[in-house]
Amino acid sequence: MSEIDVQRSEGAETSVPQSGMAHFLWQQLPYVVALVLAVAGVAYTNVSHQPLVGYWEFLALAIGVVCVITKWPEVEGKQAQLRLIWTQALHWVAVLVTMNIMLVSGVQQLLPTPATGLVLLTLLALGTFLAGVSLLSLQISFLGLAMGVTVPAISWLKQSIFFFLLGGVLLIGLGLTFWLRQDRRPAPANTKSHVEV
């Protein structure tokens, strides 16, 4: 076997795992995008103090489409495909109706605007998790769990941001203190003892 053949076979072996990893990341992309969009919606609501009604509805519909698309290759037969579409459509319509109930003006007066974003994210997380359970999809269930975990995380982060700022200032101050101390220390003298024989 020549050296060129050995190099080609090594190159083929290394390209297979890379393409496998790229394929895996490509498959996970819709879930990551949905999670990022959900967190971005809550962050925007907290900053602007205005609920994004259409945004949450769009995100719920997009996740519903992702649910159907990801399960479509596994479903065989026209009857099963129609059942998948109808069950997911009913599921996500129920989620949208619940979201819109939270946005009715009477309910809206009871909640501050930043809390509305968290409530809508909670409903979206619950809907996503339940869709994953009904479809027996680990990725969709995990997406719902990840969205659900972001709700208390965002709330905790917002409440403790002052403590994070104080901690950061403290660490910077300690770092500067030690750094300045290092600069003021006298350089160790290079002492060599000469022993004469």
Uncertain spans: 11-16
- Taken as a percent bin, the fraction of beta residues is under 5%
Shape: flat
Q: In which range does the helix fraction lie?
A: over 70%
Feature tags:
mainly alpha, 6 helices, 197 residues
Quickly describe the structure:
By secondary structure, this protein is mainly alpha-helical. It is built from six helices and no strands.
Explain this structure to me?
- By secondary structure, this protein is mostly helical.
- The chain has one domain (23-182).
- It has helices at residues 3-48, 53-71, 78-102, 105-108, 113-135, 138-184.
- Helix 3 runs antiparallel to helix 5 (113-135) and helix 5 packs across helix 6 (138-184).
- It is flat, with a radius of gyration of 28 Å.
Question: Which helices and strands appear, and what pairs or packs with what?
Answer:
Blueprint: H1 3-48, H2 53-71, H3 78-102, H4 105-108, H5 113-135, H6 138-184
